[in-house]
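S.,

Sequence below, as promised.
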Amino acid sequence: MEYGKLINRAFQIAWRHKSLWFFGLFAGGGSSYFNLDLDGLIDNANGSGSLYGLDIPSFPEELLVPLILWFVLLGMVFFVMSLISEAGLIDSVNRIERGGVYRFGQAFSKGVGYFLRFLGMTILYIMLILLTIGVCGGLVALCFFLHVALGILSLLVAIPAVIVIIFWSGNMLCLTQRSIAVRDNSIGNGLEEAHILFKANLSKVFLITLIYIGLTILFGILGLIVWGIFGVPIAAAVYALGLGTIAAIIAGLFMGLPISLILGGYIGTFFSSLYTLFYFELLEPGRIMIHSAPPPDYPPQPIGPQ
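The prediction came back faster than expected:
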């Protein structure tokens, strides 16, 4: 498998089809969650006037519950949009690569149509991860209770076991999602196809996972640098004017926010496209598209059921 061509093609798709950045923004950040420091907010509500050592105005206690509800609602919206956007991205890349016609509205409609199946797969994935962590954590705690040395030895088994489960389940989720969105499969049929592809291409799946991790670290570093270039000078200027630390942080965040949204959409589109192209290559090795349309001697052949 020519991973370099897969990466190059994913970059091409993400750059040429900028309307996909809307989907990419949610698909790339949909697994994120909002951390709310309740202790800090409660201390502030009680009039301490500080949060992590920063002087801020007192926080009205009556606004605490609405704020929590707002964060929960926002998290739910992002979660729903992440599933719709992921399905829409997969369908879009399938159309772009297979000679079909990509339209934003049609892609969004497809995402809504696959939402329940994507939701079911995501719930299964989350339950498996929680069960794995719970079982391994419980066994490690029991071993430490019996003896410290036994607990340390159990960590040497539990940590690799958790990593293997995350590696397997994460790739099974991605492969099943693509089987559902490309072939219109049920969750059961999608899982069956994902299992066959995973088992037959274990080394390839391992390599694409390493590539994902490496590119994620690289993009994270580049994103921080870009945000720093635009946000830090503004924050420093606001702080130098004597407007306070909070005002400086808010100014820096707002200045870096548009850049972060653009980069997030582009990067999210790239990563989703890369795995979709990888899925196509597992199904039909050697058919990496170098251009946005197939060559004249290569008639379009849709992957989905005919």
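The longest strand covers residues 50-51.

Coffee later?
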